[in-house]
Amino acid sequence: MATLRVNLQERSYEIVNRPGALGQCGALAAQVLRGRLACVVSDSRVAPLYADTVLESLRGAGLEPFLLTVSAGEQSKCPAQLAQLWEQMAAHGMTRSDTVFALGGGVVGDLAGFAAATMLRGVDLVQLPTTLLAQVDSSVGGKVAVDLRAGKNLAGCFYQPKLVVMDPETLNTLPDRVFADGMAEVVKYGCIWDEALFARLEALPDRAAVTAVVEEITTACCDIKRQVVEQDEHDLGLRMLLNFGHTMGHVYEKAYRYETYTHGEAVAAGMVDAARLGELLGHTPSGTAERIAALVRRHGLPAAIHAGRADVEAALRLDKKNLEGALHFVFLERLGRARTERVARETILAHWRDGAWT
Ligand code: NAD
Ligand code: GLY
Asked: Which of 170, 317, 330, 347 is positioned for an S-S bond with 130, CB 3.0–4.6 A?
């Protein structure tokens, strides 16, 4: 059993990670919550699998749960769905001492989290992440948001949960592609923070091998995220390291209109790109990109994605980290250690020729 504590003064909370934890979420939550009503938000794929376990556990702890289900998929992370959740919560008579439980992947976590942050100017939030990505990244650290037509995550805030409860057994029902998506973020932690984690992942040949030790892996990742968030809760410096691989990753997601590649697939190729560019600019030891490429391939992710120069140019111009033609780019000083550097967009483009780095 693993329990971590995220230390953020009065916003501190625990992350509980163990098999069977979902069935104990009521008893765990009862230790930190105040109110009686428990609004469980889930999606149409996760609810049939896990909502009963959660509702039963909440009832067993003396809470009065009700379930709100949204359609599975990123399209639910939108203002219209958020407004519908507010109305449904109000219709159920939620008060400021009641709690929202986000049961699902990052979509539900971000959407229900933002609903909790804004309902009645803020009600308590418990994250119950059920994807690998949500367990190692989105359920910890307090970023909650919805997408706007103008872009992803454009309306949101920082809102820390009161508790995170993750159950490694929920990962067994993930489709391979969704599991691999989360592996990209796991590999990222190894790259930026923990060379031993990276080497451990290199020794795991496939999903089954990862699954055998997944609780240790997810706990190691949460512990890294904990340290980053404790030092930079509001994303003003250190937390930007979590964007390793995301600059080119976003280029690919945009170039393919968010349809062809998952976020994790785009980030996997983006991490290899960031290492290659780092090698070319002298920030990163040679051979690093090849090791990352081999690792992401082993875990079902692409090490390269093709994009045309016009797409790359356009996406870099729109990058949120773009300031006067230069971007905050995360480079590896070596595996396990990262730093940000400002890089001119032209420098990136000068090394990008027809989908290859030269
Ligand atoms: P997701 O929530 O859409 O889940 C992926 C798919 O898996 C969905 O169809 C879902 O229904 C299904 N699913 C979830 N758990 C399952 C289970 N245990 N068994 C079977 N199916 C299951 O996607 P995601 O990858 O978890 O999250 C992506 C979202 O997270 C994006 O919106 C992204 O912006 C956000 N995100 C947020 C943060 C943050 O810090 N807040 C960080 C990274 C990503
Ligand atoms: N997923 C990036 C962050 O939480 O900052």
From this structure: 170
